[in-house]
Each structure stands twice: as C-alpha cells, then as structure tokens.
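Second attempt. The first submission of Long-chain fatty acid--CoA ligase had a stray character pasted in from the spreadsheet, which I only caught after the job came back as garbage. Lesson logged: always re-copy from the clean sequence file. Corrected sequence (598 aa) follows.
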Amino acid sequence: MPPAVSPDHTLAHLLEHNAAVHPDLPALSWRSGADWETLTWSEVNAAVARLAQGYASLGVAPGDRALLMMGDRPEHWLSDLALVHIGAVPTTVYGTAAPEQIAYIARHSGARLAVVEDAAVAAAWEPLATDPGTALESLVVVSGADPGRGHLDYAALAATPEGDAFGRRHDLKPDDLLTVVYTSGTTGDPKGVAVTHRRMLANLAALDSLIDLPEHAAHICYLPLAHIAERVLGLYLPLLRASHVWMCDDPARLVEVLRHVRPPQFFGVPRVWEKLASALRAGIAGLPEEQRAGIEAAMAVATEHTACLERGEPVPPDLAERFAAVRGLALTPLLEKVGLDRVVWASSASAPMPQEVVRFWAGLGVPVMDAWGLTESLGVATVNTPTAGFRLGSVGRPLATVEVRVADDGEVLLRGETVFDGYVDAGGAVRPATDADGWFATGDVGRLDGDGHLWIIDRKKEIIVTSGGKNVSPALVENTLKEHPLVGQVYAHGDGRPYLVALVVPDREVAPVWAAARGIDTGGDWDALVAHPEVNAELERAVAAANARLSRAEQVKRHRVLAGEWGPDTGELTPSLKLRRRVIRDRYAEELDALYRD
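This time the job returned cleanly.
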C-alpha cells in the first residue's frame, strides 16, 4: 500500500520508503536495443544517490535551478530525482522548443546546469554558456558528449561514488520548490509555474484515493515530462504507489510498448485515443461482413453495460453475463491489438474529446474517464472515476483538495490546497496569481451540472465571436466534424467574420481503408488520395452531417481539405497534441482568406 502522506513529508520520503519496503520490486524499465533493462527500487535509490553526488560535484546547491531537455529515457527520470534530492529545482524543457524558447527559459530560470540528450541537442545550448544573460555554467550531455565543445559526460557523473550529497534530502522542507513547470507559451512567453512538495503530495494523495488499481501497477511514460500530466503520472505518482514505470522514448512505438506491457491503466490525450480508435476501426472495416456484424453486436452490449454504470445503477445479472461473454469472445481480442485488454482505468485530459470517440471506446468496454486541470492546478483538478461516478463527456467532479466555481461569464475558477502558489519571476520570487479570496481564473469556460460534474466548453481566449456577435466554441465545431471517421483533424475559423470556415485533414489510418473498400486505388499516393473526387465528396457529406447538428452560427459554410497531417514537429500542435490555433491561422492565412472570397 502507498505510504501515508504526512504534512511534513517531501517527495524524498517516497523514494526512501520504496527502497526500504519494496527494494526488489521493479521500478523503472527501458528498451536497450531489442531487450528491456530494469532497475528495482533499491537500484533506483542507489542510482539516484550516485547522480546526486555527481551533480553536487558540479557545484549544484540547494535552491539552484537545473534544466533538462531529453526524451522519456531513464537518464531523464533519474536525473530529475537526483536533483530534487540535493535540493535543486529541475525543469524539463520541451524537446520541440525552438532555440529562442530555450534561450528565454534559460535566462528566465537563472539555471546554472543543463542536462541534454545528445550532442545535436547540445548545439542549441552551447551559445547560452557564454551568454551574459544566462547563469549557465555546466552542460551535461547524455549521449556523445564532446569535451572539445564544453560538454560534460553524463556517464561519468552517473558513476560518481556516493558521498554526503544524498543526505541533503533530509533537509528538504514541504514548502520548498519541487519543480518549476513552464507553460507551453502558445499565447506569449512561457510562464514558470511554482510547484512545492507540499502541494504535489496533497495532489497525489487526493488522486490516489480515487484510483482503484492493482498494487504496483505498470505505467507507460510516453508523453513529454515537460508536461504536468506525465510529470504527475509518470514520475511522482509512481513514487507514491511504488509503480513500475516503462519508458517509451518514441511515441511512434507506443502501441508496441502497450502490447508488451499490457498495463492496467492508460492515460492518453484526445489525439492519442483518436489515433488508437482509427487503427482499430481500420482493422474492423477490413474484416468479413459476418465478423463485423458480430463485433457491432458485441459493442452494442458493451455500450448498454457502460450506460448502466454511468447512471450509477447496479448492472442486471443478465446484462453482466452478456457483457462478460462478448468481452471474452469479441472485444478482448480487439483490445489485445493495441495492448489495452487489461486496462481497468482509462483516462484522458488536455482538451475535449469528440463524443464519437468516447462512444467508440465505451462500445469496447473501455469507458475513458475524462479529467481536467491545468499546470496551475498541478495537473488534475476534476476527474471521473468508475467507483465514485462518471458522466461521459464531462470532466468529472473536483478532487477533495480543490473547490470549483463558475463565474458569471462562464469562466471556471479554482481554489484549494492543490492550486499552485504562483508564477516564478525572473528573479526567482513567486508571484501569487489568485484573487483576494484565493480564486484562480483558469481561462477555461464551462458549466457545473446538478450532480457537481464539470463540463468544459472551450478556452475563453479561443471562443470565436462572429461579426454578427455570436459566441462559438471552436472545439465543439471541430469535434462534431471529427465524428466522421474519415476526418482526422479540423481547425475552425471565423473570429470577426460573418460565418465559420474550416481546414480539414483526412485521417491517415481510416482514409486508405475507406478508399480500398470502394475500389479507389491511388497506388499509395497520399496526396492523390486526398484529392480524389470521391474522398472530397464524402468529406462534403461529413461537413453537411455535422452542420445538421450545429446551430446556425456554428455551421461551417466552406472548408478546405489539406493533405499534410499536423503535429508537434511541424508546429501546428503543442507537445500535448492540442491545436496551436495562432500557428495554424498564420500558416494557412491565404487558404482561410480564400474561403471568404466569392
């Protein structure tokens, strides 16, 4: 069982507890070539102690800031803990950050140390070591360190004999900074969110009380550790639960890792659930008609079963029997294809999920529990749970440590033990961001229903106001369009305009299967497939079907089909796979303007 969290504890107490009580349990695994390597909790403790001494030997002192820029690899996970245990304050920088963003965070944080993945990444950091505007003194490189370029070798630090630096963990105080997490900066410069040991431990305890999982459950760490969600789920919560963390350093290999681990819990942002659903739909579409009919019948039973749970009603015995039967015969074999056959806790956050995707997973017997929060709420503020009740489409009820209120203009406000202390200024001081009564304005627009479930409508700043004065949620419009399987990504546009238009990107998994079923052969040429008249005619029908369900102001009058899929690497999505609306608007300004021309 997790250790009892005391008000005078810090994160260091959790590692110490695990090393003493669960020394031989697996703690951290990662792929090494074709095989997997694993450290137990006692081995993690020893590795962190050596690294702590190594970083201390570079002059890293309590209160010093340190920056990490790596993928989800063991060196990242262990370095973060080592820095925390010597009283330093680590911050992970997104791997997709542009050089100017890296420079801003380096200057703003006052970090003396940076630990980066390889020599190629180090190239963006080297000029900062001689920049008078930064305090950067040491650049540690994990792979391919070049002393001639001023690099320090990570392997040498990791082999440092244990000394007295690890003992600093006993000097940590609950109100010390655990980390500073920088927001993604989509609407301006990134802001440094102060996270203390006290508030994070309160968040972990509140979240853990709502999650009914097997002891020492496996977790796949694949989202960026710069994001608060993976930081909580992939680093801090496993320390509380003595979980087994599996590192996936390449999101393209996520399904491969899922199949290997078959975890009892899985968190995915909406785009991940959409991609997994598209892959399964494509597989179902390729089955003989009789098998497809059998799966559809099984999904109808699972949908009925989920609806019963959602209403909080006891499942009738005959429905329970039918669900058990179809799950074993039809649904489990499907879920095995993506490694989700043992999942008992499926969750999502970051942005509203299309209801069609939610219903698809419910039809497989995997109700995806939506949660909501921000970096400023230390990740989770509200959550749906199978045990405490859920409403698919809502983001659940507040944690015990937080209050939620909706202001007169619809903005969601938060107050409580797990709301952050404030933003860190360039000088290191923490600037409160709550009002006189302790409420934090989240920037999200939502509503609370009669049962206390929160429903998020959109970001306040992203609400479209048409030239006719109508307020429109772009997320609602985009998710309605995405209910057609052929539609992969959508950007709705229309602020200050007389009507809405949209950019539509077809789904790369579904479109080829859809085309093959209709005898359309473009020889694997994606651009030709996107330009095919039948594909475009079907997308026209998809827009028309969505418009039939939307109000007049929300309807998309014209759209443009694009061939290029959006992603973090190309800049249209954040690292957590949300639309960067400003980037898309600027990049496709000509195409959007053309949609308003006669």
